[in-house]
Amino acid sequence: MNAEKNAATISAKDAWYPPAKRDRFILKQLVSKDFKLKYRRSALGVVWSVLNPLLMMLVMAAVFGSFMRYNDPSLGNYAVYLILGNTAFQLMSDATSQGMNSIIWASSLLKKVKINRYVFPVQKVLFAVVNYGFSLIAIALVMVVERVPLTWTAILMPYALLTLMVFCIGLSLFLSAAAVFFRDVIHLWSVVLTAWTYATPLFYPFKILPHWMQVAEHFNPMYIYITYIRDVILYHTIPSVNMHIACLGFAVVALAIGYAVFHRHEHKFILYI
Length: 273
Prior knowledge:
This protein is mainly α. Helix content is about 75%, strand content about 0%. It has helices spanning about 1-5, 20-40, 45-70, 80-105, 105-110, 120-145, 155-180, 185-200, 210-215, 220-235, 240-265, 270.
């Protein structure tokens, strides 16, 4: 319903834009509209995007802080360790959950207007990235309070975010196509996200895992992205070449699979939505 209202803002002139330019215009309008709708009638507005990760970090730090420091002092500053992991994982969770439903939510529009269908899942990922941008303020505040310096290695942060965004787009394309044909995917994905949360070292150290799980973590995309972010922000180190390749590899593979599945089945969406 929201997508229909957003697309209605496109004028007759805009409809004659070249496809690539028209898609960028639509993406911009959809992201802007979603942002306004999210904070409409909210007294604090975008401040919630800063408060949410802060409050979650405070609760988890209070519960797990002393215990985790005792088990692995090499974690460094636990508050920063925690908020970096939680915010990155939340970005993926929000992007894929919203992207998965995007085609279904846009059903009324897709039945009336000819538009590139991939725009909708991509838009949801971009909106999640915009929200993540506000959580960076929360990360900065925690670093200031905890006196964790920001060094030049932080310039590598955009690489992690860019590859993570591409990874989320790939997942969202795949999930949005699957959800059209199998609604159970929507419920199953929430279970997968819960399991994925506990399977990723967000609030506990990697070293407490048994050997077989440590090996398995190297096939966990979110462990790779979060470790990269922690390396450049918290530990002030340059990730290895293998880490760079892994970030890019997961992104490319997810995008290739997601696009292939989406493109192959998108012509049948109209029959199931």
